[in-house]
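Posted in: Structural Biology > Protein-Ligand Complexes

Title: Requesting predicted complex, nicotinamide-adenine-dinucleotide in pocket

I'd be grateful if someone could produce the 3D structure tokens for the following input. Sequence and ligand are given below.
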Amino acid sequence: MSSNVPYSFFKSIERSFDKAAIFTNWDNGILQQIKQCNSVYQMRFPIKRENGEIVTLEAYRVQHSHHKTPCKGGIRFSMAVNQDEVMALAALMTYKCAIVNVPFGGAKGGIKINPREYTPYELEKITRRYTAELIKKNFIGPGTDVPAPDYGTGEREMAWILDTYVAMHPGEIDASGCVTGKPVSQGGVRGRIEATGLGVFYGLSEICNMPSLMNNLGLPVGVKGKRICVQGLGNVGYHTALFFQQAGALIVGLAEYEGAIRNYDGLDVEKVFLHRKKTASILDFPGAENFAKSADALEMDCDMLIPAALENVINAENAARVKAKIVGEAANGPLTPEADEIFNLKGTLVVPDMYLNAGGVTVSYFEWLKNLSHVRYGRLEKRFSENMNHHIVNQMEELTGKTINGAEKEFLLHGADEIDLVRSGLEETMVGATREIVDIWQRTPAIPDMRTAAYVCAINKVGTSYAELGIFP
Ligand code: NAD
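-- Reply #1 --
Done. Output follows.
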């Protein structure tokens, strides 16, 4: 492990695991097997830059668990990449996949670079070389290990990974399932971009619809009228805020790194996004007040706070001043363990990142299934459903003597497209996972918080898998 890591992210995951393990019945051997990282691949390779300079890069791929294969997890391009971080994120992927019933083991990868310091040509060389290193050691493939985008990577890098893999596996019919988060034209799936934000919305909406939880918090049931503050107007934060606004919630605060704004009558997310694009700042949005500092937004008077930017933003210093009764962890690790303890004492409901932001991996799973089946979702049944719907609507009109018009008729006739099916699968997954975790929490009053309940859920699923494989007779 890198010697310059002052705090171990992986150890903190192990601590949360141990806190939850006491609420399970697995023997110590199984618990050890679940929590340790199965394979850690550290690599170094040289790259010749466009100016002729040769640099040696440090990179990783960690497969935390093989209780289900393939393994799955994103690839990060960041200067903060180190073995400890990659191991921790791989472990979180195991637990996340288990909770949302996505049949993968957890993995994560990373290259220690600042992508902004490299040209697109250099990034392509780096991505292709990293992929070749993974291929050499059998650390990538539709049945072994399937990467995805993370910090600093996106559709472009996934397309390079795919192309390198395909070039080195000619004739492998399922090769496009070797990576997810690809452009739709390269075997990607519709609905992947907004998947994490939409998943956060589905998960938190389900929480808001639970009378027992809302009564405890002294909040009315439902999303409508809930006052919400979102930190981060990037991919996850923007979509989360937008879906909540469309469902009738009031987005009363929005925070970005340059500042934050509030309006208790509600902010229009799309307009704020366009204002920021035009003026290069979220501040001075018409009708809104500026906060003195961006971080002040975290402490504003609201019902729900959704940190969707960075890790450790709510900590021992500011947690006691947070007024929201629900904190939805859309980002990975936005709360420190100290903040968690403060919220527990205050009775603030923390909805944990480990499952709340699982929308991305859930839709990645749908992409992988699409690649293995070689057919777009909805292609076979869409026209059949539309013909059937026409028939039903015609019969209804004939029998009632009334005509159905406009948008309502269009809605009734519509056959499911890929995007409809992906969203339906995502909603089912997030609602199911929310209910399962809350049920575990409510059935065992000694479980202190929802995060621990989520770990219990994950440990039981991975443990069952190992036990059923017969590894531990
Ligand atoms: P992103 O880069 O698209 O957005 C992050 C936003 O946060 C940016 O707009 C950035 O300007 C803003 N930001 C940075 N510093 C800030 C500060 N101090 N205060 C307020 N805002 C600040 O990234 P993203 O994909 O939306 O990811 C956000 C978080 O969600 C990360 O923790 C990521 O690991 C997690 N996550 C993302 C996905 C996904 O599918 N994108 C999936 C799971 C988890």
